[in-house]
Write a structure and sequence with these properties.
Elements lengths: L5 E6 L6 H10 L3 E4 H9 L6 H8 L12 H10 L1 H25 L4 E5 L7 H6 L2 E6 L2 H12 L3 H10 L3 H7 L2 E4 L4 H23 L2
Helix pairs in contact: 2-5, 4-5, 7-8
């Protein structure tokens, strides 16, 4: 990996605090490659993914403004796993290509690649040098999402069940951030990881 930034894949389940972790890394000047943001850019009006999405799913998934109707698409893929696979087959390669382009253009020692579905998809695991998992107990996840989004417990449990298990995330993790406590405890762990990743990146660059 000589000559490029160290790639740290950051992941975690809904309500784990992954966004808070990414924000703390950003405070250290680290570039965050947000794959959800890239997906949004691809599906706004005139987004690069829209022609393929229209061809695959029809005009019913296109909103009045010309962008993706996210609510309709979300309902479609939750109701039918095969439709979710079709959607991911279109979006994931495009997201990956743009994410890797941004990684290659970055001049910092390391970058954080924020990938909610990193555990579920093999591509980003292969592209990242390390995987960092933000974790908290399931009940903490549910409580946080209920407070933040106002979802019913059954809705949150369905989302959690559709995501990778904690055990699956632990199996691919190089580093685990315990976010079951207060915010300052989260920050302390990330500050320590920043020092570690900076040192690893420096060592890799000198090889």
């Amino acid at each position: 990996m000589t000559g490029r930034a160290l790639r740290i894949g950051l992941t975690g389940g809904i309500g784990s605090g992954k966004s808070a972790a990414a924000a703390r890394f950003a405070r250290h000047g680290v570039t965050i490659i947000d794959t959800d943001a890239i997906a949004h850019e691809l599906t706004v009006p005139d987004g690069a993914a829209l022609p393929a999405l229209r061809a695959a799913f029809g005009s019913a998934v296109i909103a009045g403004d010309g962008g993706l109707d996210r609510a309709r698409m979300r309902a479609l893929v939750f109701a039918d796993p095969a439709e979710r696979v079709r959607l991911e087959a279109i979006l994931h390669p495009m997201i990956a290509a743009e994410g890797l382009r941004r990684c290659a253009a970055d001049t910092h020692p390391y970058v954080i690649v924020d990938v909610p579905l990193l555990t579920e998809t093999g591509h980003w695991r292969a592209c990242c040098d390390r995987v960092c998992v933000v974790d908290c107990p399931r009940e903490t996840q549910i409580a946080r999402v209920a407070e933040r989004n106002g979802y019913l417990r059954a809705e949150i449990e369905a989302i959690v069940a559709a995501q990778a298990s904690r055990e699956a995330r632990f199996a691919i993790a190089d580093d685990i951030i315990d976010n079951s406590g207060p915010l300052d405890a989260l920050h302390a762990q990330i500050d320590a990881l920043h020092e570690r990743y900076s040192a690893l990146a420096k060592a890799a660059m000198s090889c």
